[in-house]
Design a protein that fits this description.
- By secondary structure, the chain is an all-alpha fold.
- It has three domains: 3-70, Multidrug-efflux Transporter Regulator, Chain: A, Domain 2 (Orthogonal Bundle); 115-237, no CATH class; 242-342, no CATH class.
- The chain is built from 17 helices and three strands.
- It has helices at residues 5-12, 16-24, 43-57, 62-70, 72-109, 116-132, 135-140, 148-166, 174-190, 195-207, 209-215, 219-237, 243-256, 260-272, 280-297, 301-313, 325-341, and strands at residues 3-4, 32-33, 39-41.
- A three-stranded antiparallel sheet has the order 1-3-2.
- The chain is elongated.
């Protein structure tokens, strides 16, 4: 059976223009041409068209369809995996939107009038998150999921920080240090303990004024909390160091503290990538860890030992640090491997 392009188009519910386009891009070219130059499609062509239409229903691009049909054994699993990931991302976005719509509906059911500006800002924030995070990251990021209790907690933390700043309470004050400790513990929780997510969230906060408005957290406020958190950790170190050592460390530690999460994120990524602790990449990370440690601890081995003992004996130093036993074990193996080669 041979069908001309118009006949095939009518039977398949397509336009002639679509079939011409498939021919132009090499996706479906007629096997036969009549003496008058008409396109004629045989049974093989029709079967290929059916497969094209089936794959289009799955949402595949024409480029992917062509690759799959020409080399199905090598490409089909990868293409299907991409389609599943895309569908998962779309479902996650729809689920989040549904949760927010449920919240809005609950407000309306209680005869509460939602603030239109706040609602629009919420939708704007969802778009921001989609821009800065991958679908997988959004699925793991607690900050992205609607949670009235968590949002209220962050508003309360921001109000408390604003009050301390308005009253010129120094970061060294016990009230500021207590706030910073609770702030960092909540931030670690709401970034799923993943410093990579923390880094992206920080970048989004710097680049998106609407996020600062929504949360009430300004860059000066974030800097104030960061300094107060450094002072809180220094208060723990003070119990282990001599006066001279503490003077040296306290002058340098606040500037080095923000550099730890990005390095921890690189260690986690190396672990996810399956890089062995003795590999050069892991050893390079171990050297950077030592360099960052010495940047505030100096070069005296006795000071190093005191600080290590503080971290062993003080669980509070693990809070808000985005480091866990798995990362420390990996780092320890990299350091041991580094020591054996130098």
């Amino acid at each position: 059976m041979l069908l001309r392009v118009g006949q095939l188009a009518r039977r398949c519910g397509l336009t002639i223009r679509t079939l011409h386009h498939y021919d132009t891009i090499g996706l479906l070219s007629p096997s036969v041409r009549s003496d008058a130059g008409y396109r004629l499609y045989n049974a093989h062509d029709i079967a290929r068209l059916h497969r094209i239409l089936a794959l289009r229903e799955l949402g595949m691009s024409l480029a992917d369809i062509g690759t799959v049909l020409d080399r199905p054994e090598a490409t089909l699993p990868a293409v299907i995996a991409r389609q599943i990931a895309a569908l998962d991302a779309e479902l996650a976005r729809k689920a989040t939107l549904r949760e927010r719509l449920v919240q809005l509906g609950d407000q309306l059911a209680r005869d509460e009038v939602p603030d239109p500006a706040g609602w629009l800002t919420t939708l704007e924030l969802m778009t921001m998150y989609d821009t800065h995070f991958t679908a997988d990251e959004l699925e793991r990021l607690p900050f992205y999921r609607p949670d009235a209790e968590r949002e209220a907690q962050w508003r309360a933390l921001a109000d408390e920080a604003d009050d301390l700043m308005q009253r010129d309470v120094p970061p060294q004050d016990a009230a500021a240090r207590d706030l910073a400790r609770r702030w960092m513990i909540a931030l670690e929780r709401d970034t799923a303990g993943d410093p990579t997510l923390l880094g992206k969230l920080d970048a989004m906060h710097r680049e998106e004024p609407a996020l600062q408005t929504q949360l009430g957290i300004t860059p000066p406020m974030a800097a104030y909390v960061q300094r107060a958190f450094a002072e809180d950790r220094l208060a723990v170190y003070r119990r282990y160091l001599s006066d001279e050592e503490f003077t040296f460390v306290s002058a340098r530690y606040p500037q080095q503290l923000p550099k730890w999460p990005p390095l921890i994120a690189e260690l986690r990524q190396a672990m996810r990538d399956g890089i062995a602790p003795h590999a050069p990449e892991a050893q390079s990370l171990a050297r950077r860890w030592f360099a960052l440690f010495r940047a505030y601890a100096g070069d005296d081995p006795r000071t190093h030992e005191k600080l290590r003992r503080a971290h062993q004996d003080e669980p509070a130093l693990r809070q808000g640090a985005w480091v866990d036993d798995e990362v420390l074990a990996y780092l320890g193996q990299a350091i041991a491997s580094l020591s054996s080669t130098e």
